[in-house]
Amino acid sequence: MTTSLTSIAHNVAHRGLTYLHDHQDAEVFPADIPVEPEDPDTVYKPVAEIGMAAALVLREGVGGTAQLRAARELIDFTWRQLREGNLLYERQVRNCLLTDPIEVYCHFVHGGHRHEELERLVTHNAAVGSLPEVYPNRRLAVANSYRMCGIPTDDDWESLLRATWLGATPPPWAIDWDTAYSMTHTVFHVTDWGARPHDLPADVAGYLGTWLPVWTDVWSEVGDWDLVAELLIVDACLPEPRFDLDMWTRFASVQHSDGLLPRDAEPVETDRVQRFWDHCHPTVVAVVAGTLAVSRLLGAGR
Amino acid sequence: MEGLLVPVNGERLQVALTDAAAEVADRVLDAVDGTQDIGLADYVNTGADAKTALGAVRLIGADVFAPHLLLGRPVHPDDAAVIAHSFAVFPPAGQAATPRQQVVAWRDWATSHLLARTGQPAPAGPDVVPTAVPQTATALLGPGKSWQEWSATAAQLSPLALPGLGGPIAAAMFDGARPLAQGATQAMLRRDFVTAARLIRWIALLSSSGVRQLLDPGLLVERIRLYGGTGSRLSLDLAIAGRLLGMEPA
Amino acid sequence: MSVQHTFLPAVAAAEEQSALEALMVEPEAGVSDAPRYVEIPQALALLKLKLSPPLPKEPKH
User: Fold this and answer.
1) Which of A124, B90, B147, C44 has the fewest CB atoms within 10 Å around its CB?
2) Do B104 and C11 make contact, defined as CB atoms within 8 angstroms?
3) Residues B14, C17: C-beta atoms closer than 8 Å
4) In terms of domain of life, where is this protein from (chain B) (predicted)?
């Protein structure tokens, strides 16, 4: 069973990465991402997320040679999209309280890209300690970004976690779609994307061990594959992942032949560029889910 | 009016039975929430379609004993006779080979077991009311079932979630805190309040017996009441759970 | 007993028996007016409408 699950998860990640790799061209990506885009979600955020997925593939190192090469090329491509970090630097200079520059940058550091001026800025900002008010799970994202970059902070991880929805372990039936995303991100950041599964307190890990299968069941039934992919990452971040073969089989079966992972059960556009932007996010998440699952299954996780 | 029950199609029969079961459930609910008798005999004997009414009594099954088991109300001899007659008109299947037949057999066992306890003579003949304890608790609720299968079966067996009934099914539930809670959570998120309420009954029963549960059944009862759970049988399930938990009637 | 055996309706036919059995084993089939979740064609819409506000605009990582 472990072998077939490993192979399913490997294929999901490999095909997803191939899809992302096949779309790094001028037809898909605009020539220049503005430092202050009207809507950061349109290009800036997807570029950052593709870079993050590539960085995690490189970090885990469980893909084959072709997969690692594709990840290398993707992280280099997205770094160029961010103008070798100048975009992040200028964004931070113009908006000193923004946290997304460090949240994006930390993954590229892992991918071998540095921007010294930006590091000086964010190190200074960490010392100032003036953070905008954000969702508690987003606050954990900031804490993990500093941790990944090796920039010291006085973050109290336990109290940051307890401020989140998940940290309070509320009744599992009193969750909604948006809060489910918050819950997943709390786990991603506390465990540094599965690198530190035992940083989850025992009560939270136990809570997730019981209720994650239910949430995954409910949202897969309605074909909310984007959220299901995030929930599969959560599973791979737990001290004792469940790795449900049936669920992974269903999840893998919705992946298109070119590697696109549809965000939901609605029909997928045929236009090459449109379908990429519509389904880039779930495909990125699927790459991360497959990569972390393979890594944990092979015991290569730290 | 028996012509109504001449086999036309299964769906029409089910609708007729469902409507009648709602009336029976309303009567039991009034008894659980208030002070009046259920008046089963009155309902069956004065209605237009006695056969459908008796089928509804079979369907509600052990729940007709809820006022007796929860509140210590006496079981009226006429009501006991009606329950026995429901077995005579809708005779239990001889064997329980499939899971579906096994569930039915357990529900019939609960009804007949509680009927026998009332000490009323069986008016419909000696062999009509089943008395043997089925041997299928492990097959239905044993290890190796997924939480989805396990909780769906527990929901089907919810009429057995009554205080003082006991038996192998209730014993199996004692080990099922996790799948019960998972199934109830799934049902709540799917807005399937009917299934949720049935599972909440088990959680309430176990909780009232001092068995630690993963979910607070009182909050769940309140939630369904406040968020629009309606229907006679759902209300009855909630009322029984509420009584088990010492909550005020809705 | 006040209700005599001879006054009972005829024993239920096989189809009537099977209608009753179906109701005894199906929590969702027609026993109440609860939403029949799995039969709703736009099940996704149900879950999103009832469970969730729209995605917030700020970027997530």
Assistant:
1) A124
2) no
3) no
4) Bacteria
Identify the weakest region by mean pLDDT among A68-72, A192-196, B129-133, C44-48: C44-48
Q: Which chain C residue has its CA at the smallest distance from A40's CA? A: C59
Per-residue pLDDT tens over the stretch B147-171: 999 999 999 999 999 999 999 999 9
Touching partners of A (3+ C-beta pairs < 8 Å): B, C
Is C4 part of any domain? no
pLDDT score for A302: 39
Which 208-247 residues of chain B touch chain C by CB within 8 A? 229-234
Q: Which domain holds residue C35?
A: 14-51
Number of other CB atoms surrounding residue B170 within 10 Å: 21
Average pLDDT of the residues in A61-73? 95
* A149 to A146, B148, B235, C14, C60: CA distances (angstroms): 5, 43, 57, 73, 19
Nearest CA in chain B to A217: B186
Which two tokens mark A133? 């008010």
Give me the domains of chain A, ranges plus CATH numbers. 2-297 (1.50.10)
A133 shares contact with chain C (CB less than 8 Å):
no
Please judge whether A176 and C52 are an interchain contact, meaning their C-beta atoms are less than 8 angstroms apart. yes
Residue B192, min C-alpha distance to chain C (Å): 6
Q: Note every long-range contact of A101-104, with CB atoms under 8 Å and residues 24 or more positions apart, other chains counting.
A: A102/A142, A102/A145, A102/A146, A102/A149, A103/A48, A103/A141, A103/A142, A103/A145, A103/C61, A104/A48, A104/A51, A104/A52, A104/C61
Ranges of chain C with pLDDT below 70: 1-6, 27-61
Q: What is the pTM of this model?
A: 0.91
Nearest CA-CA distance, residue A176 and chain B, Å: 9
> pLDDT, tens digit, for every residue of A138-167?
999 999 999 999 999 999 999 999 999 999
